[in-house]
Amino acid sequence: MPIIYAFFLLCIIGCAQSQPKSQSQAVQKPVQSEDNVFSFESMDCPKDYIRGMGMGENRQAALMQAVAEISSQVQHSMTVKQAAELLNTQGTNLQATKQMEESIMVVVCMSREDAAKPYLNQLSRINDSLNLAIQTEIAQKHPRAKREAARTAEDLRMRQITTVQILQGLGKDIELPSASTEAYEKMLRDYEEFSSNFKFIWEATSEEISQILVSKISSKYKIETGTCVQGLKLVPITTDISCEYGKLGPHCSYSPVLEGRSCENELYFVLKGSTVRTTIERSESEARRKLLIQIPNASFWDNWFEELDKYK
Question: Which end of the chain is more exposed for a tag (fewer CB within 10 A), N or C?
């Protein structure tokens, strides 16, 4: 009897072990391990490649962020405070993609050689443009053209320095051209000398109107009289007051015109203004007096000062 009972017990145990697992036990969802996430984020690019990683709600957004990270790495190699933009974005290669629940993560790689190509081409164009701007500044006599060329050269010089530093950060053995540096420093000395000697010269006349005009201009700019050697010569063209008599009394008017010329008498500009008028007064002397008071506050000064500011 004990033997039969033992056999029966073994059958029960065997049958229980052979029963199929429940559906919940059979379809367990695998869990993403931390090791897999870590291996993706630490994925390296080949030697001499720049790595960028990005995450976004879609593939394009993730790629844009990854390219921005590469641009940031390029920018960090610069010592001047300028924003560096990655020019050759087509040279980036998608290294890996990871789909997450609500976003996508990508790793892109870009060879330093591909990244450097557009900057090498850009540097060549910058060097040519900078050389032209330097030559223009030195040759120019017109103050506005000379100032514009100098400012263009300054901007190009900064772009030149920025581009060289980007290329150095990308592993290129390249330096600022010594000839360009010498020419640029020569231009700076020339422009500094020009600016320090440049003056506003008033071609003095004794009329009352002339004195009022130069007094107003002197309130904003340093004005000198005498011989014009280097600067802007200001010549009042109209200095006469016109008075008319009506049935109710006299009224006076003045139509302002001012020329700007080089010291060699080359005409740079002609400034005109709306006619300044008085109302009818009891006498001509009273009308003239009131006209002279109105001129410094007339509306034409805003336009005149806007033009003169270009020569400061």
Answer: N
Cα distance between residue 248 and residue 33, in whole Å: 102
- The phi-psi region of residue 21 (left if phi > 0; otherwise alpha if psi is between -120 and 50; otherwise beta) is beta
Q: Do residues 291 and 276 touch, judged by C-beta distance below 8 A?
A: yes
Q: Can you give the pTM of this predicted structure?
A: 0.70
Going by their DSSP bridges, the two strands 199-202 and 231-236 should be labelled as parallel
The tens digit of pLDDT for each residue in 219-246 reads 999 999 989 999 999 999 988 899 988 7
Residue 32: Cβ-neighbour burial (10 angstroms; 0-12, 13-18, 19+): exposed
Residues 279-292, mean pLDDT to the nearest whole number = 88
Q: Which of 243, 159, 150, 233 is nearest to 191 (CA)?
A: 150
Nearest to 71 by CA among 120, 113, 110, 103: 110
- For residues 263 and 311, is the Cβ–Cβ distance under 8 A? no
Q: Per the structure block, which two tokens stand in for 248?
A: 């109710």
Q: Which residues of 156-177 are buried (b: 16+ CB within 10 A; e: fewer)?
A: bbebbbbbbbbbbbbebebebb
